[in-house]
């Protein structure tokens, strides 16, 4: 068994915790209730993924974005070769990788997903969108799996990826306007737009008419089906992780309902789940877990 964390390592994890607390209040609300070591491991994984995301979001042009990603990839190469960069995130991630069987290939998949954003092409169909989503979000599900589950079988890995894809689809449906205005990206597949008679001009103008609503609900149905199918997985996870994971799933799913409540305005509004609703979701999931335990 590994020894306790040193004061320096404790501070490294606190820095990782501050990152998830700032950038993803929903994830933090869910996973901060995990046992201490598991929660810290989640924070370290999140901090790495945030660094990959920031590598392109905080860069001014394509060349700078690729340079940042190349630097991160070089640091990852060194890290996995035993030459860990001496920064809080890498120190915390090293401790996490020592404690859990983290799939290192998923760290590279995360970077590859960011590279796909740098050289962005609007997905032609749902399959292309899911391929992208597997890199940027399915990889996160795979990275968290050994922390939250004692049975990282092939089936568990596939379903963890699917949950990540559901959350990425939710991000896309929440951020249609922001993605277009700030990054010039439209993640909605061209075939989905054509099928419902929704033009790119409608996206550019931020018109939530019936054609757009039909497009939006088409992708929302894909996400909700993935959320629903994952609920059958929960019994395979650590007892202490079941409630945090269901809370994360359901709070994210609730974002879709927030967009609906706001008449599908994902162009000008930042649709978020209130703390009151998060607390209600927590109680609902506690009742669900109690029910399946007694079945």
Shape: globular
Mean pLDDT score, rounded? 95
Gap from first CA to last CA: 36 Å
Return the CATH topology of the largest domain: Farnesyl Diphosphate Synthase
Order of helices and strands: HHHHHHHHHHHHHH
Number of spatially distinct domains: 2
Characterization of the model:
The chain is mainly alpha-helical. It has two domains: 9-119, Farnesyl Diphosphate Synthase; 127-295, Farnesyl Diphosphate Synthase (Orthogonal Bundle). It is built from 14 helices and no strands. It has helices at residues 7-23, 25-31, 36-57, 62-80, 88-99, 105-118, 126-148, 154-174, 176-183, 190-195, 200-205, 210-230, 239-261, 275-294. It is globular and about 55 Å long. The model has no long low-confidence stretch (mean pLDDT 95).
């Amino acid at each position: 068994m590994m020894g306790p964390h040193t004061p320096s390592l404790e501070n490294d994890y606190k820095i990782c915790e501050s990152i998830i607390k700032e950038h993803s209040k929903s994830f933090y609300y869910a996973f901060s209730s995990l046992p201490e070591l598991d929660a810290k491991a989640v924070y370290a994984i999140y901090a790495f993924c945030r660094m990959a995301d920031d590598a392109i979001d905080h860069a001014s042009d394509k060349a700078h974005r690729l340079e940042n990603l190349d630097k991160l990839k070089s640091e990852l190469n060194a890290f996995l070769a035993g030459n860990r960069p001496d920064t809080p995130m890498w120190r915390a991630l090293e401790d996490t990788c020592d404690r859990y069987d983290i799939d290192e290939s998923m760290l590279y998949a995360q970077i590859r997903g960011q590279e796909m954003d740098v050289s962005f092409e609007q997905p032609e169909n749902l399959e292309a969108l899911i391929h992208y989503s597997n890199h940027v979000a399915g990889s996160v599900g795979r990275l968290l799996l050994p922390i939250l589950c004692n049975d990282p079988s092939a089936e568990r890995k596939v379903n963890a990826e699917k949950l990540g894809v559901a959350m990425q689809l939710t991000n896309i449906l929440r951020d249609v306007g922001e993605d277009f205005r700030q990054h010039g990206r439209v993640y909605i597949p061209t075939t989905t737009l054509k099928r419902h008679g929704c033009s790119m001009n409608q996206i550019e103008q931020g018109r939530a008419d019936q054609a757009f609503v039909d497009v939006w609900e088409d992708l929302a149905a894909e996400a909700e089906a993935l959320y629903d199918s994952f609920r059958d997985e929960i019994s395979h996870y650590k007892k202490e992780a079941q409630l945090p994971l269901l809370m994360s799933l359901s709070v994210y799913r609730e974002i879709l309902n927030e967009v609906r409540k706001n008449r599908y305005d994902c162009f000008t509004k930042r649709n978020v789940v209130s703390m009151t609703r998060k607390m209600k979701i927590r109680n609902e999931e506690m009742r669900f877990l109690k029910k399946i335990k007694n079945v």
